[in-house]
Amino acid sequence: MSDRWIEETFHADWRVALRASKVLHEVKTDHQHLVIFENPSWGTVLMLDGVVQLTTKDEHVYHEMMAHVPLMALDRPSKVLIVGGGDGGVLREVLKHTCVDKAVLVEIDREVIDTSLQYFPQIPQQALESARSEVVIADGLKYVAETDELFDCIIVDSSEPIGPSAVLHSKEFFASCRRALTPGGALVTQNGLAQLFPDHLAGTTRIFASLFKRAAPYICHQPCYFGGLFALNLATDDKSILGIGPKKLAKRARKRGVADLKYWTPAVHLGAFALPAELQRTLEHSLAAGKAGDDSGYVMAPAPKAPAKKTAPKKQAPKSPEKKAATKKTAAIPSKPAAKSQPKSKTSR
Ligand code: SAM
Fold first, then answer.
1. Cα 270–275–281 angle (5° rounding)?
2. Distance 15 CA to ligand 1 centre (A)
3. Which residue in 58, 109, 152, 157 is the catalytic one?
4. Which residue, 153, 185, 175, is CA-closest to 67?
5. Separation of alpha carbons 174 and 211, rounded Å
6. Mean pLDDT computed over 139-163
7. Neighbour count for residue 315 (Cβ, 10 Å)
């Protein structure tokens, strides 16, 4: 059993480490540091730039809530755009809706797609190869700004606002999304850990309120995102889509053949919009600010640098030949992102 511990490095004030019983793949791609490893409790884990993206144990929570909340709210969504989400989990859930004719997935990093298919094919299943799917390797900011297609639903399955994902949390990007939505369509994004870092949720809510008639944050509990409630945020110009009752939601699920889910139910869907009092106040404040023209989004503050590693005491025994060889091998594939790409920001989750 390996004793390597892989840390989430992007939090300013805390660090969570997961034991890697086996590192399956580790590489610095053109865009980010990617590591996939096995953990006896969480299953297979994908980490990008020091941030846990998913584990095979609980990926269904986030993927179901990202896909089914906006899609079940819409009458008959047929065209869906997913920005990011190269692991294919959101796409898998989207394609469960038989009314969806076409789902475009725009991912910046081909390696996320390739390694997902190789190391945890149970997440994308056949979604990435489906005749209803179109996979585009491109920057989502550029793609959405330039597309002349319209989508009933846009799901932004981004990472945290650091590295290549930072632009996917900007007003410029969300304004392009609005332009690429059919009238009354829905836009959904993730908003990090709501209770610990409410500024992310507040910033996106201000932007959404400045662009759309309605912004509606909702929450789920995603165990692998350590720190409590996880926020998502929905924006639309059709306020009625948020008033669909449980019977109609259940009917839609049946009619579309969406079955055997592990997290989403009509009751969970409706309950997800009920925020704890403190978050509700944040939300009301941000909605009012956004409507009044404050569209300032969330920008991560730089996190303090990690303390320099202590040098080994001189009297330590010399390394064995095997240990030397192992050190050399790891050095070829950086176990941590290079200084430039290492997240230095204050966390939002
Ligand atoms: N469900 C997980 C979560 O939220 O933590 C997974 C998120 S998914 C893996 C995030 C994806 O967004 C990554 O594969 C990353 O490469 C992609 N991404 C980051 N910046 C992007 C950009 N500008 N355009 C398109 N995709 C981007």
1. 140
2. 21
3. 157
4. 153
5. 8
6. 96
7. 5
Mutate to test the pocket of ligand 1, among 157, 263, 347 (most ligand atoms within 8 A of CB): 157
Per-residue pLDDT averaged across 174-193, rounded? Answer: 97
Q: Report the distance separating Cα 122 and Cα 124, nearest Å.
A: 6
Question: What is the C-alpha R_g of the chain?
Answer: 21
Percentage of the residues of the chain whose pLDDT score is greater than 90: 77
278 is a domain residue: yes
The enclosing domain of 200 has a CATH number of 3.40.50.150
Residue 331 lies in a domain: no
pLDDT of residue 306: 54
**Which pLDDT does position 255 carry in this prediction?**
97
Question: Which residue segment(s) compose the domain that 215 sits in?
Answer: 59-291
Active site residue 237: no
Residue from 36, 144, 159 to probe ligand 1 pocket by mutation (most atoms less than 8 Å from CB): 159
Q: Name the pTM for this structure.
A: 0.88
Split into its structural domains, the chain has a count of 1
Render 155-193 in DSSP notation, one character per residue.
Answer: EEE---SSGGGGGGGSHHHHHHHHHTEEEEEEEEEEEEE
Residue 152 domain flag: yes
Q: What is the mean pLDDT of residues 280-300?
A: 89
pLDDT score at 28: 97
State the Cα–Cα distance between residues 305 and 307, nearest whole angstrom.
6
pLDDT score, position 249: 98
State the Cα–Cα distance between residues 290 and 203, nearest whole angstrom: 9
**DSSP three-state, residue 80:** strand
Amino acid at 129: E
Measured between alpha carbons, how far is 73 from 280 in angstroms, rounded to an integer?
21
Residue 332 covered by a domain: no
The token pair at 346 is: 């204050």
